Structures are given as C-alpha cells and as structure tokens.
Amino acid sequence: GPAHLFRLAGKCFSFVESTYKYEFCPFHNVTQHEQTFRWNAYSGILGIWHEWEIDNNTFVGMWMREGDSCETKSRQTKVHLVCGKSNKLAFVSEPSTCVYSLTFETPLVCHPHSLLVYPTLTEALQRRWDEAEQLLYDELITDQGYKKTLKDIFEEAGLLKVTEEKEVEKQNKKISLEFETVEKCSKEYKQLSKEIKKLKDLLSQHGIAYKGNSGE
C-alpha cells in the first residue's frame, strides 16, 4: 500500500464509547475491551490486518478480518481512512452483527493523490494497467473484463488477498503455461526422453525388467 502510511505501523489508537474501549493498531489488529467490573467482561479481537478496500482505483480503507468467532463466522472490521488534523480513531459502529466499521482520521490522507493505487505498483504491473486502459479505450475488452484485470493486478501486488480456489487455479495455470509454444514442448520432450533413457539403462544394469513405449 501507500508507503507514507507505514509510519502508522507499530502505533495504536483508542476510542471509548459507552462501556467499550476500541483499539486500532494499523497493519496489525482491532480490539474491543469492555470497561466494566462484570466477571465475564468481553475483551477480544475484532479483526487482524488482512487486505485493502479499493474503490475507483483508490485505497479507501483497511479490512481487518479473522477476528474472534461470533456465532457461525469471525468478527471483521472495515477501517475507513479520512482526512483529519491529527491521527485519531473518530467513530465506531456495528452496521451488521459482528461486522464493525471504524473511521480513522489522519493528515496522511489529505493530499488528493495520497491514496492512489497506481503509484504504489511496480513498473511491470503499471504497464499491465496501462495496457488494460488501452484495451478498454479501443473497446477490445468490456468494463467487466477491465475490472477483472485490475483485480488480478491488485492481487499480484499483494493489496488484495487471493482466494484459495484462485491460488490453485494459478498453480494449474503455471503448469499449463510451460508448454505454451511448440518449441518449449519439443525442448521438454527431448529432456524427458534423455531422463527416460537414463532410467532404462539403470533398470537394465540392475536386471529389472521394464516394458513400456516412449509415449508412456
């Protein structure tokens, strides 16, 4: 993400509302502590740093997920980043059960370009984004295709988490891409043929019978 926000790492900001104290530690976690003398006062994790929320090619917030279990799911929190005179946790709410919303004010996001995604990417990923822009402009991809390309770029940059299914798909793609040209296929085939010959010779040396054709 934006390098200038990394100076918030290692710091924590708290906010007290009613009997609860909320604590937000950027790039780490969000916790909640009940400020009462009850014997079973709640104190727990509302989310651990997970990924960015990106909207209109701009970082708009941080997702803290996989917090303490809550009924059938884990608690999670979205932290909205807004411009403010000082670094402070300004507002906390629970829009739906076990999903929390925090507003964090900071002067670090006041500059209009401070939360743009593009400048944080590597040159290679920026080029891919430029190509996608051109394809969209030339109407060679749909708006949906463009958004999917951007999502892939953000995932590759580590800004968004890749789902487990997608990870498996990526690994499979890598395997299939090894033979994307005839030249690559021929080279690989020659290499494998050499290895098979070595193995056959080894089996012969040890007097182990072997049946099979080169295709196998």
Automatic annotation (TrEMBL):
InterPro entries: DMAP1-bd, Gtb1-like, Man6P_isomerase_rcpt-bd_dom_sf, MRH_dom, OS9-like_dom. Residues 10-112 form the MRH domain. PROSITE patterns: DMAP1_BIND, MRH. This is N-acetylglucosamine-1-phosphotransferase subunit gamma. Homodimer; disulfide-linked. Hexamer of two alpha (GNPTAB), two beta (GNPTAB) and two gamma (GNPTG) subunits; disulfide-linked. The alpha and/or the beta subunits of the enzyme constitute the catalytic subunits. Non-catalytic subunit of the N-acetylglucosamine-1-phosphotransferase complex, an enzyme that catalyzes the formation of mannose 6-phosphate (M6P) markers on high mannose type oligosaccharides in the Golgi apparatus. Binds and presents the high mannose glycans of the acceptor to the catalytic alpha and beta subunits (GNPTAB). Enhances the rate of N-acetylglucosamine-1-phosphate transfer to the oligosaccharides of acid hydrolase acceptors. Keywords: Disulfide bond, Glycoprotein, Golgi apparatus, Secreted, Signal. One of its GO terms (cellular component) is Golgi apparatus. The gene is GNPTG. Gene3D superfamilies: Mannose-6-phosphate receptor binding domain. It comes from the Eukaryota. Pfam families: PRKCSH. It is found in: Golgi apparatus; Secreted. Residues 117-216 form the DMAP1-binding domain. The keyword Transport does not apply. The keyword DNA-binding does not apply. PANTHER family: N-ACETYLGLUCOSAMINE-1-PHOSPHOTRANSFERASE SUBUNIT GAMMA, N-LINKED OLIGOSACCHARIDE PROCESSING.
